[in-house]
Write a structure and sequence with these properties.
Rossmann fold, alpha/beta, three-stranded antiparallel beta sheet, globular
Amino acid sequence: MKKVSIIGAGHVGATAGLYLLEKRIANVVLVDIVEGLPQGKAMDLSHAAPLRKYLHTITGANDYEAIADSDLVVITAGLPRRPGMSRSDLLATNAKIVGSVAEQVKTYAPDAVVIVVTNPLDVMCHVVKEVTGFPKNRVMGMAGVLDSTRFRLFIAQELGVHLSDVVALVLGGHGDDMVPLPRYTSVSGIPITELLSQETIDRLVARTRKGGGEIVGLLKEGSAFYAPASSITEMMEAILLNIRRNLPVSAYLEGEYDLKDVYVGVPAVLGQNGVEKVIELALTYDEKSALHASANSVAKSVAQWEEMKGA
């Protein structure tokens, strides 16, 4: 039996637990510091089991001992964005939270693959990697899958085509300088550059970059959780079942794309060992420059975190 522990039983974590149960591939543990929260949500989901025909269990806990022997750990703990906040605004607070969680993962789930969801996501991946000491393949961030699915939706709506016909790719950090790639985005194999004007593509790219903020502005309190939870589940399934899906994730680069010692969104093969392989695409000068600019933003935030840590 595979075991997945989700740290943070808020909207994102609990919904990811629900979606994973629906996949019928692993037992789920929800962990949260709020007493009763993970237990209550796990119990509610368990009550649905006879109707939804789950094959696995879900439990809730406040104690990190419950994550022992996890095959996969998902970290969603941290504060969400509020209107007017950037993902970087969360750096100081969430770095402390995620660093504390990483210590517990290191202690109780030393062999687990870790998916980081907490924002600012790419920097939080650095925090987890440094605190746990895990190899680079076992720490990754959920970003590109989410950003790409938003891009896919906007393209499908614009063209009036079925969502499943659209394949999209978004690279870079999980922020306003992410890098959607129209050249690698298509509808039934036809590049969108053949189907949409440059003005329309630019508009959809801009909306993709602001997609999360658009939802934050509408909700007023909290941020997106259905699409992020769906994206997490896509990654969990690939890892737990060793499907070896090629998905865009925040991965640690050591020379790929001429980037070094930085987490940034790139296409990668996901399997039982986590990031099995980083796929290096041939980028144009402009695409590569945009990716490097995005990576530099991540690197600056990491340096900021290092300064906070040393203060």
